[in-house]
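Q: Could you fold this chain for me?
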Amino acid sequence: MTRRKAATAEDILAAAVGAVPGGSARPGQEAMTAAIAESLRTGEHLLVQAGTGTGKSLGYLSPALTVDGPVVISTATLALQSQLVDHDLPRLAEAVKPLLGREPTYAVLKGRHHYLCVAKLEHAGDAEEEPAGLFDATIAETGPAKTKTVWIGEAGRLGKQFDRLRDWAAKTDTGDRDELDPGVDDVIWRQVSMPARECVGASRCPYGQECFAEASRARAREADLVVTNHSLLAVDMMAGRQIVPPHKLLIIDEAHELADRVSSATQAELTAEAVDRTARASRSYIEPEDHASLQEAADALTLGLVETPAGRLQTGLPTVLHEACTLIDGATSRALRQIGEIKADDPDPVRKQQAKATLTELNTTAQRLLAAADYDVAWVEHEPRRALVVAPLSVAGLLAEKLYEERTVVATSATLTLGGTFEPVARSLGLIAKTPPAPDAAAKAAAGTLPAKAVKPPAEHNELPWTSLDVGSPFDYAKQGILYVAAHLPRPAASGLPDAAAEELLTLIEALGGRTLGLFSSRRAAQQAAELVRMKTDYTVLLQGDEALPLLVRKFRADKASCLFGVMSLWQGVDVPGDACQLVVIDRLPFPRPDEPLAAARSAAVDDAGGSGFASVSVPIAAVRLAQGVGRLIRSTSDKGVVAVLDSRLETARGYGSFLRKSLPPFWYTTKREVALGALKRLSAE
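A: Sure. Below is the predicted structure, expressed as structure tokens.
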């Protein structure tokens, strides 16, 4: 019997591309596949920049199918996760079945709170779960056949959602919230989902055999490819790699988002509402005086948050917040000692574990804030709710320690080189040991003298073995698009949209006749732009916040005489190929605001170490955001258009202006207004 020859990554890619109608090999895709195969051979970690249109999904999925055992793919957005699971993976599995002799399997792995909890469903609507009276606004209609509940008012709207959710719960095979269509409000879903920290575990839960979250993990353990998200990946690292199945290859798509998602996962907060809710949930398991102590702690925290201005706490906790955290620490410690261990014969282990978990979280956060460690940053928020927040100053060390152990990591994105080098992103991902770059390296980066295509950095900068590759893009940016910087405009100062920039925006839009995506640095600027264009023209103006974002994007795509204006969430993930979007306007360079606590603290730390916090922190953040925003213009090989930046600093700032421009696709560059207007008028005529 002749043994089948093992398929190579190149064989799998060829089969996958051949199965697509009109599909053809793409050089960047082939280079990416070969580089990943080489990394699997050498064990070196790999950074791959793959521009829009490269076909990077097939570029990394093909070598993944040569690995013996599960391969994990982590994404930042639900859109990409859905694209993989609903389109790319089914097509790939079918295409390579003859080559592999079997159809590869795949599974989606999400956090527990994404799945319906049967145990929680049994107690949903109880007063301990949500504020009393949530479902009180009802009346009963009695007839000859039966009595039915009629929901009224806002509680009625939620009640109807709850009824629909119960009907779905009786039929669903997966319990995945994303399969509930139409969806339900978060306040409803919280009543029937279980955060991981509150879960008692399948072995101690009366409904453990029916657990949807456990079933999803079981499917993941048996699959060839497991699709998850950055947030769960972060939780898995902190939990000792107990959630995601063991694997040899981890592929991180949208890798420019990973550090921020890990920061969010390691962030914690205290709110008076959370303390009060925990007091109610634990009342049955603790002494009355300890319950009263928790309520007293909630009151103290309320007072402290009212008296403390919003912003970063640079000199430790003020006295009122220190006292509140001390009260929370003491009350939760005593309550936890009373609850003790959760036993299998407890009458209600699920509820008891929930109480213990929330007490533990409050206790840990209070102690973390009281410790005031140098590696943490604390701040007060007043909007959208009053909270005392703590987050790590940097996650690079955590990633260096937890992310790369016993597996090869491939990180990919369309935005991995900043200023022409991979080093800023590699540093944020923990691949380079030195946290701040040396001042001379930062100066070289700002001046644009670092190599355009990064290679493996010098050994003294390495903490882990890694290499990098920029596979380019199939788009001819210099022929398809113009980057126009309005260098004649005054340097932006006050928040909002300056008059000169507003007039420039209006002139550009009128030259094209709509078809404009406006990306603004603030809600106020977006609103001012919308008001101006509505007043001065007959174009339809779609403003983020007026309707759900997917609906606004659909309307923008359908109406060529329209403009879509919005803020940061529009800067990435909006995909409008074709002539519906031929002008992208950016009002100002997207530097972090001075009141962004983490960015400000990280910048100050670099300054204190003798470097430039602005060059090392603020400029790379702006570079990623700007590249993502500019990337909204060219989405296919036939697209044409203009990116207009109304911030003269992109041209006039000698150091960081050059660095930012080198972080962008290589559009044809101009500062001449008449050139940009002429191009827009020609597009309008076409």
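A (continued): Residues 127-152, 435-462 have pLDDT under 50 and may be disordered.
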